[in-house]
Amino acid sequence: MKATTISAPGAHRPDPDRPVLMLLPGMVCNGRAWRDQARHLAGRCEPRIADYGGACHMTDMARAVLAQAPDRFLLAGHSMGARVAMEVQRLAPERVLGLCFAGTEYGPSPAGEAGRRETESRDALLAVARQQGMPAMARRWLPALIPEARLADEKLVEDILTMIAEHSPDQLEAHIAAGATRPDSRAVLRAITTPTLLLAGAEDRLRPPAAHWEMAALIPDARLVEIPGAGHMLTMENPEAVNTALDQWVAACRPFCSRGAASTPARPVNVD
To answer: pTM of the full predicted structure?
Structure first.
């Protein structure tokens, strides 16, 4: 998908009583990752699952989201989707009425030994995807995504494996490439002026709670909720706890939705 416009037409004004909630999936995830939340919030929001198309850069993904969104909207992202949400916030903060970041971090793509390990790990997953198929890659990756105790949960495992297998190796490669372009988002987080919720899986080994506490220290008045018993796929592992936290976040965003924007207009953040 080609999307370069970041100013939505004025005719698409939000309904303050039922604002659009853009839901951004993570790497080789889709609407399944946000399914329970979309159903739960449908009476109070208009959930929309973002489509990154073939974008392979964080900025291009963010522009794709902005092209699909109305003038003003709530924004929630999981994992890679949360990094895309940060880039949306950098490009068009005046359009975002509230933010939720789940299972993520804020730093740049790592350099040195850490960067080498990340590249090798993701290249290995891509090799499995190309040589054995996406279902095999999903099974290889699964133990890193959920706690060991949840591997016996057949419904959860099947849902995650099916979701990943709905993607192609080319999509996986595009998402890996996008992850390699993630910037240092500290300046973006410090400049946020709207209600912000951080969700961390209490047992997430990929993006541990500690990273979320660091983010909470950067974002003014952020609220952090650790989701018990959940790993990296927290929205699917413990949807009830996630939904409860989102209920409170949506309620906190109501005054911003009624005004159509934050009381003090935000400006794009320059991170160059």
So the answer is: 0.89
